[in-house]
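Morning. Coffee machine broken again, so started the prediction first thing and wrote up yesterday's gels while waiting. Chain of 644 residues, entered below exactly as on the submission form.
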Amino acid sequence: MSVINILSPHVADMIAAGEVVERPASVIKELCENALDAGAKNVTVEIRGGGATLIRVTDDGCGMSPEDAGVAFLRHATSKLHDERGLEAIATMGFRGEALAAISAVSKIRLVTREHGAAEGTLVTLEAGEITEMQPFGCPEGTTMEVRELFYNTPARQKFMKSDRAEASACQAAALRCALAHPEVSFRFIRDGEEQFFSPGDGREDSCIYSLLGRAVATDMLKCTGDNDGVRVSGYVSSPAAGRGNRSAQYFFCNGRAIRSQLLQAALEQAYRNTLLTGRYPSCVLYLTLSYGSVDVNVHPAKTEVKFSEERKVFDAVYYAVLSALTGEERTKAPAAELPADIRPKESFYQSMSAEQFRANGYAAAPDKTGSGVKGASPRTESRGDGAVAFGKTASGAWKPTGLRAPDPAWQTRLDLSPARPTPSEPKGVAVTGFEPPAGTRIVEKAVQNVEKPRLPDHKIVGEAMKTYIIVEVNDELLLIDKHAAHERMIFDRLKAQDRSIMAQTLLAPVTLRPDGADGELIERYGELFTSLGFEIDPFGAEEYVVRALPADVDAADVAPAIEEICEKLRRGKAPQPEDARDEILHTVACKAAIKAGWDNSPEELERVVEAVLSGAVKYCPHGRPVSAVVTKKELDKLFRRIV
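Came back before lunch.
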């Protein structure tokens, strides 16, 4: 008895659909690529119900004849490939002839199309891949494709769909990538009746970036161009001061196709080496143009992964183009006349100061070409102890420090470095694991009240090096302590030891976030976890979120980069367990709350960090880096040749 069955064409199409149509965003990508291949100059994408209810893509391309419209939904039916030789140099967005067959197998489709110059158009309706109606129809030149009730006949796939909000964000991201890839085409995206973005289609990369990614991103972009032996690079990269907490704003395009490439990502980030802070990532919109025969797009059904025949050449082209933009920032920025009036490059805080002004205001070094006079510092908290630096404009219009603001009463408590205040009531007990406080120490709320000083070796704080490393003399050794790493560990241990929800602070002015589809999905998935750790994040409008509260240790100005960084960590983990996800969030909270390199700290604050290290409670930061290093007197004597 035979046990091997030959599947029907319909079942085979449904199986194939799983490779091409992963979610509604996949449908938008395929239909937009078909519109681009048809020579469209205007494309409108409309969705309802996150794309599951309706996806409509309208273009003014060449349209289809009645004969072509009837066979377009057959598997491997394509107008873009004629024989195997065509695979050697693919110049179109699509070529396999699988997309329409895969989409029609799991949805209900209505196609209206008309060729240029034809007297009438054609209407075709399909259900589960079968044509149910085909007739002449009056319509404009071009094509309109409506996809309704996606996955209606595949309940298993429907079950794994995300919320309408998450799916709609993914659809918008897919349409945005297509629009960024082709500045010469005008794209419009409509979500549940409201227009979300519109690109002018004037062929200019700068205006395309401005209209699609917004003013905040466009103002921090530097023009980037390069050419390396036939590999041409153009586009824009972010300035070093505009680093992000994740890679979600890195867009790479090869011959007009949006791609994912670890090679290009590595080249980009290598160019930023020693320029960006650790844990920050550059943004970019980079266009690669090279011969079609030197890149293979027939690697993955989604056609987002490619292989380059000469990877070294491509890497060098991107690396040197980005490096040139960074090292010659003023020279490579697009001239103000070339940009829209409201995104003309502005003079940065550091660039507005002379070297003399820079030193006169207490900074350690003159500003460099990247605008970063002090590594790791920002104008908001360049020098921060009990208060924060306040800035004002001089008569010339330049921004400069005007002095310290009044100390924040909660500042010491947020740092967890202040002595405990006496409490009239009996202290609440807190279970602490992984850290045994010295004898005579009791934990009261957030602070530690030292009834009896722990026994520590005799030591003396000599001072600080570069406002980053505390220098401590202990017997005949010098102990160097990374104050940020040590304090980060102190906060992390305290937060992790709490077996209750972390104390939150309600913001007087809620912060609005506009994450991309992937980050929005993570915020929804880990919503309860965010809440238990002190964040209050609610949906706000179609694609924004509003942060109403955050952990008491985190500064309100750090909420956006903190959430970006958390989402990046959660995305990197492979289906992290709840405890792992909690640790990732606590890592970021502790990092944002800890004292920073470059800040001014009082002797009392430094003493508490030193005590934590000398007591043995703090040895490594939450990321595993050591917080201290020892230099012995013998090593110093050898260095100065006092001994051989």
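Residues 329-451 have pLDDT under 50 and may be disordered. Going to sketch it on the whiteboard this afternoon.
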